Amino acid sequence: MALIEVSLLRIRLMLAVLVLGLFVLSAEARVRHYKWEVKYEYKSPDCFKKLVIAINGRTPGPTILAQQNDTIIVELKNSLLTENVAIHWHGIRQIGTPWFDGTEGVTQCPILPGDTFVYRFVVDRPGTYLYHAHYGMQREAGLYGSIRVTLPDGVPEPFPYNYDRSIILNDWYHKSTYEQATGLSSIPFTWVGEPQSLLIQGRGRFNCNTPGIEAGVCNATLPECSPYVLTVIPGKTYRLRISSLTALSALSFEIEGHNMTVVEADGHYVQPFDVKNLFIYSGETYSVLVKTDQDPSRNYWASVKVVSRNSTTPNGLAIFNYYPNHPRKSPPTIPPTGPMWDAVEPRRAQGLAIKARQGFIHPPPPISDRLLVFLNTQNRVNGYVRWSVNNVSFNLPHTPYLIALKENLTHLLDQTPPPDGYDFVNYDIFSVAKNVNATTSDNIYRLQFNTTVDIILQNANTMNPNNSETHPWHLHGHDFWVLGYGKGKFDLYNDPKNYNLVNPIMKNTVAVQPYGWTALRFVANNPGVWAFHCHIESHFAMGMGVVFEEGIEKVGKLPTSIMGCGATKGIPRP
Amino acid sequence: MALIEVSLLRIRLMLAVLVLGLFVLSAEARVRHYKWEVKYEYKSPDCFKKLVIAINGRTPGPTILAQQNDTIIVELKNSLLTENVAIHWHGIRQIGTPWFDGTEGVTQCPILPGDTFVYRFVVDRPGTYLYHAHYGMQREAGLYGSIRVTLPDGVPEPFPYNYDRSIILNDWYHKSTYEQATGLSSIPFTWVGEPQSLLIQGRGRFNCNTPGIEAGVCNATLPECSPYVLTVIPGKTYRLRISSLTALSALSFEIEGHNMTVVEADGHYVQPFDVKNLFIYSGETYSVLVKTDQDPSRNYWASVKVVSRNSTTPNGLAIFNYYPNHPRKSPPTIPPTGPMWDAVEPRRAQGLAIKARQGFIHPPPPISDRLLVFLNTQNRVNGYVRWSVNNVSFNLPHTPYLIALKENLTHLLDQTPPPDGYDFVNYDIFSVAKNVNATTSDNIYRLQFNTTVDIILQNANTMNPNNSETHPWHLHGHDFWVLGYGKGKFDLYNDPKNYNLVNPIMKNTVAVQPYGWTALRFVANNPGVWAFHCHIESHFAMGMGVVFEEGIEKVGKLPTSIMGCGATKGIPRP
After folding, report:
1. Among B77, B105, B216, B420, which residue carries the largest CB count within 10 Å?
2. Cβ–Cβ gap B109/A112 under 8 Å
3. Residue A396: its chain B contacts at CB < 8 A?
């Protein structure tokens, strides 16, 4: 993979040399070709040995580095023995290639063991993106990585910096995804509990002296689980691309003694503002600028902490290493303890502070054509615990939506339109619902092409008294404007008056705070079928999502490679 | 499932009552309809809790009870989250339905998560059969059960007995199939070691005081792992249908103080002979008659032991409970220790003793049309440890053989014919091969329809000095005659002179002893594509198998349900 890329680069450089500088370096987009093999391997990212799904032997997988408008080709070989796979390119809108969104059951059939599936798509916007498994709960098994899309040669970023670094944050369970999923789909429901550790760029540290663990599986001396070290040169500005792919946890990230200036969120420039700690939810990406302007004679802690849940997961630590101090030299201080886990206000405040950067504002349409209010609730369906949207728990169809709709196989789907809202007047979002029962369905929201859609994500009490959780929602195929956040029940008449229609940030993932609401707007202008769901792995697996169709008639001929399941088994038509 | 069967029976009985005995009970074949759901569940078959693949919550799965010529319909719902499945009906020849043999990659594409696949086939011969997963190493995860096919009403067995009981023997690993498979396909090769316990009808007993195991996973007080109890009435004759589906182990089974009379092997009547202990290899089934003629005031041990390997796996124990003694009353004696693990001679002697029963002899064709000599060796391919036949290590194609051949997609397969033999003159079966390298291939033996084929399974030294293992080979779609066994290298000129052509037993599974050979004959008269492979789960996964095609042009229209992988993805032709 790296070899091919280097060769392409070399050819390009040779060509550049050949023309002896008569022409400037071509601004033409390149093709970046990756060959990835997905396979189970034993890894000890937090010193505890377990099977992970690795790409080319690594978790996180290789970073995709590209320039705006490059074409990415990933030849993905599934070398799992009995298990399928699919990879989603998180934040990439897949304009013109909705079949390569990698969302199993929505845009493609799963990739079978032994098969090689070729993803091919354009990264049309610069920014910080992610990729990860979008099948079952495989993301939790370690199948994820970074995509960094830079500006074309010669185009400057609107903020100066000296170095560019990517850091993925994650939480980490010792139980396999099978064990977790079995618990979720059992009666009684069995919850895996809090993650055992937090990983910073794939490294964490579990206490191997924890009583009761199997002999020989935990080894604190492995270099693999030594803390991640970010070595910096004093007096410089670092762009840190911080992203989160946690299974469950909302996080706070900080670097001891250093402020961070937020400049990018989900691929969009942010009007800069400073934070001491950055709150980040699963599926979000941020760029922050950090000045290495502190005492250079020592190292500093970088620390990550779970917020929003009273978690038993210990804070994750990395070393912010001022060169030339030894990278393993412990900072002389006690690591930062981070913010209070249950303080919602600072988190809401950060959300409100994120606005589009002056000069880079994409103004939203002033009004919307359709309003969808999505009540997020925890429910029971046939005795199983599920999550629902307006009391419908999401279920994937046998034939992926994109194929069923494009090939006029709509009879394969539940054709009842899902509800556009809930019982606003009578539903008490602050209590356990009187009737927690919900239904499951594979029905779909069909949006008129090019219309503007508003979504209110309304949070509520779970099935436990006095409990409401944080849900980061992620939209495929689009960026949306974040128009507002609020506490309590969304007021259809008054709350829209406070929408930010001037400089709202565009994002692909946004959090809904406990007992709160978040308002979004997007334009349904990307022909295809797109998932919109809670990015917490278990919540989506338990039905917390919906699917949108828009402009299906404008979708091009579907590649046969995405077929093979449901109604698409057979000798293909010539 | 059981309900449906009972209802069918009830309807039938009601009809019988209705006609007031004017007619004898109809000899017409019935349809037996099963609905099975395959799902991961936590079980503790040997007191150690692990995830197993259960059918309707059980491992072993429900027993299929049928009469000769009944049609079995199994609606199999795959409720695994990300993992496919396929079930093989072991010993059922699938005459006219080769697409329902359940051999993933050979006769069908895997069944995807969420899908329901309908197997429909006729059990045309009475006898003791099995079913089990035939995909990856899922059989080891607990996906297996019994098929008992009885004679039509009024047709007596050639031996009298009072009661009929089924007992499946198995070995049991605590590591998941993922963990095992990851080790097998790693460099360096990592072997999981010997199984932790032996199961008798799904029950075993691991010592929970073993040091180093994770806290809370082992519980010796669970009723689930109390010993299997076979309650018998004194003075009766029991038919015990003993079968083995071990992952690895060759076994010896005995009931303290009771001889066993062998009367059936793999669905064929055996000229009765008595044994104190029964040797049984993975994939074999036997019926033995046991007389409950011992002191009825006590219970007896039934015991199973690993032979052929110097195993660390402790013997498995069950209680042969003479009614009305308490079923949990321990026998007053020390359990039998079983035969020496390394005594090959008694095992060879049992093989030679098994002959077709007088009056039920199917004489083999006196000569064969084609001779295949299959050298079984352990090899390396690209640094990976593999097993091979004539230095070709078996690899499944992307499009299952049956589909590729029937639909004229032969270009998808390696078309080089695999070798009919090996270098008989120079190959030293008693030493580590000088060149252990092999190739992998998905090529196939194409047999002329209705011809008679002889196969010599030739064992050899593994890659370790002075080591040769036992391999039970299983043929799909056929029964074969066992013509002979021998020690050392098969002599093409002299050994055939000693073949038993008079009353050889027919079987579907037979063992090849260390440094020995076994000679088989079968008639290629079942249109389809059929696997022939070592029944040790890891050996087949590592390439120890071949595939036969015969009469592909006589195979009927393939059902679309078996497609969806390789070249069979797409909107099907109308």
Report:
1. B105
2. yes
3. 114
Interchain pair B570, A563: CB under 8 A:
yes
**Nearest one of A122, A124, A142 to A132, comparing CA atoms:** A142
Which chain B residues are Cβ-neighbours of A572 within 8 angstroms? 568-573
> How far out from the chain centre does Cα B94 lie?
16
> What whole-number distance in Å separates Cα of residue B79 and Cα of residue B441?
32
- Domains of chain B plus CATH, in order, are 2-155 (2.60.40.420), 166-347 (2.60.40.420), 370-559 (2.60.40.420)
> Which member of B561, B567, B570 has the closest CB to residue A573?
B570
B84:A81 CB<8 A: no
SS3 A571: coil
Tokens of B247: 């992952």
Helices (H), A146-206: 177-184
- Is the bond preceding A465 in cis, omega lying within 30 degrees of 0? no
Compare all CA atoms of chain A with the CA of B542 and give the residue at the minimum distance. Answer: A81
What distance in Å separates residue A514's CA from the closest CA in chain B? 29
Query: CA-CA distance, A236 to A241, in Å (whole number)?
Result: 16
d(CA A149, CA A17): 25
Which phi and psi angles does A3 have, rounded to 5°? -60, -45
Q: Which residues contact B390 (CB under 8 A, 6 or more apart)?
A: B373, B374, B375, B418, B419, B420, B421, B422
Tell me whether residues B82 and A81 touch, CB distance under 8 A: no
A114: left (phi over 0), alpha (psi -120 to 50) or beta: left
What is the tally of helices (H) and strands (E) in chain B?
5, 32
The total number of residues written for chain A in this structure: 574
Partner residue facing A572 (CB), from B82, B186, B569 = B569
- Which residues in B lie closer than 8 A to residue A103 (C-beta atoms)? none
User: With an 8 Å Cβ cutoff, are A82 and B573 in contact?
Assistant: no
* Partners of residue B565 in chain A, C-beta under 8 Å: 112, 115, 564
> Is the Cβ pair A568, B571 closer than 8 Å?
yes
Instruction: Say how far apart CA A377 and CA A369 lie, in whole Å.
Output: 26
For the record, the structure tokens of B294 come out as 């011992």
The distance from CA B516 to its chain's CA centroid, rounded to whole angstroms, is 21
| B199 touches B46 (CB < 8 A) | yes
User: Which two three-digit tokens encode residue A125?
Assistant: 């916007």
**Mind giving me the DSSP string for A480-539?**
EEEEEEEESS--TTTGGGG---SSBPEESEEEE-TTEEEEEEEE--S-EEEEEEE-SHHH
DSSP for residue A101: S
Each residue's pLDDT expressed in tens, for chain A with a length of 574 residues: 344 444 444 444 444 444 433 333 445 779 999 999 999 999 999 999 999 999 999 999 999 999 999 999 999 999 999 999 999 999 999 999 999 999 999 999 999 999 999 999 999 999 999 999 999 999 999 999 999 999 999 999 999 999 999 999 999 999 999 999 999 999 999 999 999 999 999 999 999 999 999 999 999 999 999 999 999 999 999 999 999 999 999 999 999 999 999 999 999 999 999 999 999 999 999 999 999 999 999 999 999 999 999 999 999 999 999 999 999 999 999 999 999 999 999 999 999 999 999 999 999 999 999 999 999 999 999 999 999 999 999 999 999 999 999 999 999 999 999 999 999 999 999 999 999 999 999 999 999 999 999 999 999 999 999 999 999 999 999 999 999 999 999 999 999 999 999 999 999 999 999 999 999 999 999 999 999 999 999 999 999 999 999 999 999 999 999 999 999 999 886 6
Q: Looking at the complex, report in whole angstroms how far the Cα of residue A566 sits from the nearest Cα belonging to chain B.
A: 8
Q: Which residues contact B426 (CB under 8 A, 6 or more apart)?
A: none
Which of A497, A495, A501, A469 is CA-nearest to residue A482? A501
Cβ separation of A571 and B569 shorter than 8 Å? Answer: no
